[in-house]
Each structure stands twice: as C-alpha cells, then as structure tokens.
Specification:
The complex is a heterodimer of chains A (433) and B (157).
Chain A: H1 7-10, H2 14-35, H3 37-46, H4 67-73, E1 86-91, E2 101-105, H5 106-122, E3 130-133, H6 142-153, E4 156-158, H7 165-174, E5 179-182, H8 184-196, E6 208-212, H9 218-228, E7 231-238, E8 243-249, E9 256-258, E10 263-268, E11 282-288, E12 299-305, E13 307-308, E14 320-321, E15 326-327, E16 332-334, E17 337-339, H10 341-350, E18 357-364, E19 367-375, H11 385-403, E20 408-412, E21 427-429
Parallel strand pairs in A: 3-4, 3-5, 5-6, 6-7, 18-21, 19-20
Antiparallel strand pairs in A: 1-2, 7-8, 8-9, 9-14, 10-11, 11-12, 12-15, 13-14, 16-17, 18-19
Helix pairs in contact in A: 2-3, 5-6, 8-9, 9-10, 10-11
Chain B: H1 2-12, E1 19-27, H2 32-42, E2 47-54, E3 58-65, H3 68-77, E4 82-92, H4 98-108, E5 113-118, E6 128-134, H5 137-146, E7 151-152
Antiparallel strand pairs in B: 1-3, 1-4, 2-3, 4-6, 4-7, 5-6
Classes of the chains: A alpha/beta (433), B alpha+beta (157).
The complex binds zinc ion.
C-alpha cells in the first residue's frame, strides 16, 4: 500500500495544484520585488513588474537566475529576509566555480524537511523504521536534509554522516537500520564492503535506500539493489533550491515526482532560453514558490532532462522528471561530442564491471584523449591474456557504440581508484583550455 | 563433457604431476613487479620460476613458488588478484635439440601449447625444467612420460 506524507498535496487535482502555484507565485514575485534589489533590477531591465504576473502562465516573462548571478550577488545579494530572521546556511562543495551559500529561515527549513519526509515516506518509511543517514553532515545539504525529513516521518534516525565504512556497517547490522540515505557511489562501496565481509542480501537488514546528489545509472541501481537486497530510490535537489527533496522517486521507480507545490519546473532550450513544449528534453529551470530567505526565481539548473504528466501508479499527481542525463556542468565535450559520465557507467555495469571507475580526459597534439580506468576484479581475471584482451576490446566497442567516439580502456589494480565517501570524483580533466 | 571424460580417466591413471602456477594481475608501471616480489620475499616465499606476459597497460606475472597456499595468502593480503593454473614441468635433457624433442612429442599428440617458460635450475639435481601451459594437461603428461621425459612436481623444482 502506497503511503504519503502529505497526501492532499502529493495527490492534489491538477486544478487544485495550479491554484496553489498561482497563489504562491504572485506572492513570491511581490516578495522579491520588495526585498531583493538584485532581482528587482533584472525585472526592471526586462520591463516586468509584479502587476504583469497573474498566474503561472506568465512565468516566462520573468528573468532567469543562473550560477553567474549567484556568484555576482555573493554573499548577501539575493537574500530575501533580514539576517536576523535567517537561522541556517548550507553550502556547496564549490566544484564548479565559487561555492553557493544558501540561507534559510525556519520556514524554509520546515518546507525542505517536509520534502525530504515525502521522499522517505515514498520509499516506504514510517515511524517503525530505523533510518541511517550516511550523507555528509555540515555545509553539505545531504545530511541535514534527510536527517530533518527522517525526524518528521518519525524514524529512529542514525546520524552516522559519511565515512568510517566499517562503523557504518556495524550500525546497520547492530541497530537494524532499514533505510539508508547516502550518495549512490557510497552505497555501492558499502555494498562492496559488505559483500567482502560475507554479508549477503538476506543478512542485511536494510529494505530501502535513498540515493542522490550525483548522477547514477539504472544499471548501478540494479547492482546496489541486488548486493544489499533493497529497493533503491533516487532523490534530486540543489543547494540553491534547498537541497535534496526537490524531487523524489516513488514505488514505481520510474522518474522522480517534483514537489511542485514548492518548486515549479520548466524545461527550456539552453541556447535560445525559450520554454519548450511538454515532454521535450531541455534544461531544467525551477522557481522556488515559497522559500523566503533565498528565493530563487527561474533558476537555471544546467541539468538536462524532461518532464512528464503521465499518470503514475503510486497515485501521486505531482509532475515527474526523468533522471537528468547529467548536469550540463558534468557534461564533457570530447572531440566535439557531448559525453556524460553516466553513459560510460551504463556500459561498464552492463558488461559486468564494478561501478568504481575514473574518466581521464587529456589533450595530445590538439586532439582530446579519453581514458576510462577500470579496476580488475577476481571474477574478471584469468591467466589467459587473450581472454582479457577480448573483454577489453568488447568494452571499447561498447563505449564507442554508446558515445560515438573511441575511449581507451585501462585495466588497473584493485583498490587503486580512490573510494569516495561523498560525491565521487569520476572525471579528471587535464586539458588546459 | 570433455572435462568429465578427463576426470574419469584420471581415476584409473596415475596421479597427475601438474604443478600449480600462480598468475597475478599487475599494472604495467615501473616498480610494480618489484613491489610484488618484495612482498613475497618478505614473507619468506621462494620463487622457482617467473615469467611475465604484458600488454601496454597491464601484465600477467606467472610464478612457480615453493608454497602455493602461503603465496596466495600473502598476495590477497596485499590486494593482488591472482588465480591458479595447472602447468606441466618437464626436465629438458642437456643435449642439442633437447627442447625441440619435447615440442615434437606434444605436436604429434596434438597437444595445444599456450605458452612456456624456463625455470631456474631444479632444486636438487641442477637440471633445467621447462614450464608448459597446455590445454590437455593429463594427455601432455602421458605422452611425455611415454617418450621417456621426466616430469617434476612441486617438491622437485
Ligand atoms: Zn509515483
């Protein structure tokens, strides 16, 4: 039986949802006009005032916000509430450009934790569950967000944070954790370690995992599910918008429901900035409808995906987004071809390689080089050199079919690629452009 | 099916003399082979024979050691990936065409030779041995023995 955390919102009729969105949007546009001079100036430059916005149909009239705006307005330029009303900041790791520093009022934290609570409930969580949060705590939104959501659901929460893998496994087993929250790469690593310790799917008390904060493939999901004997659910979010819980997966495990009563999604053409018709693939743009302290309007996520209004078997009416193909920030352009690390991962897992890999991009004689480092496993190793070469060639062929360009495959020693406890470092781009 | 046949033959025949070779995956980088042989030496393991098959990026180190179990344990402790392969060790007579004679016997019997390499001198006798990796181990042993060649087991090499 499907459970909901806020059924009246998660299963609202389209008319009701629209009504909520219209009301919140008008209020939010007025709020930023009055309190965020940076955005007001952008509106004035575009010749828009709050009087031009009557409903979500007018959303396209509003200017975009991008990462560049966040940089320019750093640290207080986009603040929508006086600092004395703010109670928290969270921040990104700052892998691309400067860090994002986001502010929250208590109201903002409540709505964020509600979103995470919806995700945990959709993964089957109740107050009977023991939820281990192995996302990093601190500035990173993963730990605090799921921790708050877990409390709201009433789970017994184990705030292990990331790292100390053997202790993680000890808590899972000794305290019978039933839900695990962490990055997919760390989940894969935990699974690998448990397997090494001789723990099979039936020995592990976990029943569900909520994994996000980095791109992962369907094959990696299957792998994690099989190793740990769980159902693995995707969760999506950005610090700019609050953190994890902007959208979440339900029992259907086919796309993530967007919490559109809080985050209104659009798909645009990243080049022309035109809004694209329903079902199109393009850049995902979000308007946070009721965040007070850090009110993002039409924030360009750089994530490439598409939205779907198709009826979902779980009963939720919230619009669904497909797993982003990859953040356009993660996208590599190699010899003029767009390459997403998730595509490489798909091929690796399909051919039975471990999910621990590294992508090295370089440039030799003005030509880009792409090397994929894969660890040798006991299952793959044989005394027969020809057999190893054959498998290696099969992988090269598979990658060429997926990417459209040639990648060199390098087999490396076991455990030579560093395991990550948070976001995995998959790509090392040595090109100096 | 083929494997089953060989097994049932083995029951009637003399115990196989096949030696267990340890094959290890190594990255083809300076110092890697060194590091591995050092780990084995530190554990008091003696190498009887060693050969390296390599590609641009990686190699397979093939070894005959005095204690297979200890070696496997040490390798695992150091996170190496290894596998065991049965090989035949045959004593090469100290005369012109000594090796060629062995190969002729195998060819005549249609035994497929994948690779071979030489050992250091035999432990007691000072004789030279070749390590042969063949598809049909028992058949190779049988025809070599019939042709008068001396095979070695772990203790001899
Ligand atoms: Zn659903």
């Amino acid at each position: 039986m499907e459970r909901y955390y806020q059924k009246e919102l998660e299963c609202a009729s389209p008319e009701k949802m629209r009504e909520i969105q219209n009301e919140k949007l008008l209020k939010q546009v007025k709020h930023v006009w009055d309190h965020v001079p940076y955005y007001r100036k952008k509106m004035e430059e575009k010749g828009v005032t709050p009087d031009d916005i009557h409903s979500v149909d007018d959303l396209h009239k509003l200017p975009f916000l991008s990462k560049a705006d966040l940089r320019e307005a750093y640290p207080y330029g986009l603040l929508g509430k006086p600092l004395k009303e703010c109670v928290r900041i969270q921040s990104t790791s700052g892998t691309t450009g400067k860090r994002v520093v986001a502010f929250y009022t208590q109201h903002d934290i409540d709505l964020w934790e509600d979103c995470c609570a919806r995700a945990i409930t959709a993964a089957g969580g109740t107050d009977e569950d023991v939820c281990q949060v192995s996302y990093g705590y601190g500035l990173f939104t993963g730990g605090p967000g799921l921790n708050g959501g877990s409390h709201k659901v009433g789970c017994l929460t184990i705030p292990t944070s990331s790292g100390n893998t053997d202790r993680q496994i000890m808590f899972i087993n000794d305290l019978h954790a039933t839900i695990l929250c962490c990055t997919p790469s760390y989940a894969a690593y935990l699974g690998e370690r448990m397997k090494e310790m001789g723990l099979g799917p039936d020995d592990i008390p976990l029943k569900a995992g909520i994994f996000g904060a980095e791109a992962w493939s369907e094959e990696m999901r299957q792998d994690i599910q099989n190793t740990m004997g769980i159902k693995a659910y995707d969760i999506y979010g950005l610090t700019e918008l609050s953190g994890p819980g902007v959208s979440f997966e339900c029992s259907a495990q086919a796309g993530m429901h967007v919490n559109e009563d809080h985050f209104l999604p659009e798909i645009i053409d990243p080049d022309t900035e035109e809004v694209l018709p329903p079902g199109s693939e393009g850049e995902l743009v979000f308007t946070a409808l009721d965040k007070e302290a850090f009110p993002m309007i039409r924030y360009r996520t750089r994530d490439i995906c598409c939205l779907s209004r198709e009826k979902c078997s779980c009963g939720r009416t919230l619009i669904k987004m497909k797993k982003p193909k990859g953040r356009s920030d993660d996208m590599l352009i190699i010899r003029g071809v767009n390459v997403f690390p998730s595509q490489i991962e798909t091929v690796l897992l399909n051919q039975g390689y471990p999910a621990n890999y590294q992508i090295l991009v370089g440039r030799v004689n003005n030509t880009d080089t792409l090397d994929v480092l894969v660890e040798m496993t006991p299952e793959m190793f044989t005394d027969n050199l020809g057999e190893i070469n054959r498998r290696q060639k099969e992988l090269v062929d598979g990658l060429r079919a997926m990417l459209g360009i040639k990648a060199n495959v390098k087999l490396v020693a076991p455990k030579s690629i560093a395991r990550s406890e948070g976001k995995a470092v998959r790509v090392i781009d040595n090109r100096k452009i | 099916m083929k494997a089953c046949d060989t097994d049932s033959e083995a029951v009637k025949e003399e115990k196989t003399m096949a030696i267990k070779q340890i094959s290890v995956f190594l990255e083809n980088k300076p110092g890697k082979l060194d590091a591995m042989t050092k780990a084995l030496a530190d554990a008091g393991i003696t190498l009887r024979a060693l050969s390296l098959a390599e590609t641009k990026d990686f190699g397979i180190v093939r070894m005959i050691v005095d204690d297979v179990f200890d070696t496997a344990t040490v390798l695992k402790e150091h996170d190496y990936i290894a596998t065991l392969t049965p090989v035949v060790a045959v004593m090469i007579p100290d005369e012109v065409g000594g090796l060629n004679g062995v190969l002729t016997v195998l060819t005549k019997a249609s035994v497929n030779l994948e690779y071979m390499y030489a050992t250091l001198a035999g432990k007691q006798t000072g004789n030279a041995y070749m390590i042969l990796r063949v598809e049909q181990v028992k058949k190779a042993e049988e025809v070599l023995r019939a042709a008068g060649y001396r095979l070695a087991d772990e203790g001899v090499i």
